[in-house]
Amino acid sequence: MKFKTIMLVLAYLFFFLSFAFPQDEQIVLDHKEIGIHQRPLSHLSHEKHAEIIDCNHCHHEYDENGNNIGEDGQSCSECHSQVESTENPVSLLKAFHILCKNCHEKRLSNGKTSGPVMCGQCHKRQ
Ligand code: HEC
Ligand code: HEC
Ligand code: HEC
Ligand code: HEC
Question: What is the Cα–Cα distance from 98 to 94, expressed in whole angstroms?
């Protein structure tokens, strides 16, 4: 009886901890601003990326001298809206494609570990 109780407590703890400390938190990128999605949604293994890339490489913000003063965690859509204009030269969709693909392509051509570069590798049916 006691043994069963302990096992149950352990099982609950394990279950809880697996949520509290996810091994690789995946963000599903699903921005309604872009419009109705034609493709399967793409995922970002945020933790894995954050371990090897500076936060403000992605969460950037530039001062008048071009210095990156980005804060952690600002949403892309705070600055990149979907409709391009002189104040908004990079649409939200382009912002994602350029940021994600350029890095993967560059690293691939430099022979480094990299991520997907083909449409179907990011827009993957689960
Ligand atoms: C490195 C990953 C990556 C690759 C490679 C990639 N995409 Fe995307 N794509 C994204 C992300 C991220 C978004 C933004 C999704 C969101 O936040 O809603 C997106 C959005 C889109 C959208 C708008 C949303 C939708 O589903 O209609 C289209 C269309 C699209 N991509 C087509 C393509 C095509 C075509 C290719 C190949 C030429 C491609 N993508 C390659 C990551 C990628
Ligand atoms: C490879 C690019 C990239 C890197 C590196 C990165 N992030 Fe993010 N982060 C994103 C994207 C994309 C989102 C989703 C933003 C959106 O929906 O507009 C996001 C979302 C977030 C959010 C919003 C909450 C959430 O989880 O949805 C926080 C907070 C955050 N990031 C913090 C950080 C911190 C802190 C670091 C560095 C330790 C970091 N990020 C590194 C791309 C990145
Ligand atoms: C605080 C505002 C701000 C936030 C938040 C922001 N950006 Fe930007 N981003 C800018 C500005 C300003 C530029 C420069 C635009 C220009 O070329 O004049 C830029 C440029 C870019 C470029 C173009 C780089 C090039 O080589 O042309 C990409 C791609 C991009 N952002 C993607 C993203 C993504 C993806 C996110 C979210 C993870 C994000 N940005 C968050 C303001 C922001
Ligand atoms: C500055 C470089 C850089 C940027 C920006 C970047 N990635 Fe990556 N990505 C990597 C590297 C490096 C790997 C390989 C990580 C590994 O396998 O250890 C990777 C792997 C991946 C993978 C496959 C493996 C996994 O971890 O799931 C996906 C999917 C992916 N990236 C999606 C994205 C998306 C979506 C974005 C844009 C929101 C993005 N990446 C932005 C460098 C980058």
Answer: 6
CA–CA gap between residue 49 and residue 16 (Å, rounded): 24
Pocket test of ligand 1: the residue of 30, 36, 43, 97 to mutate, having most ligand atoms within 8 Å of its CB, is 97
CA-CA distance, 105 to 122, in Å (whole number)?
13
Residues 44-92 have pLDDT tens digits of 999 999 999 999 999 999 999 999 999 888 999 999 999 999 999 999 9
What residues contact residue 81 under an 8 Å CB cut-off, 6+ apart? 33, 88, 91, 92
- pLDDT value at position 71? 85
Please name which of 107, 87, 88, 99 lies closest in space to residue 29, comparing C-alpha atoms. Answer: 99
For residue 54, the CA-to-ligand 2 centroid distance in Å is: 10
Structure tokens at 31: 């921005």
Amino acid at 120: G
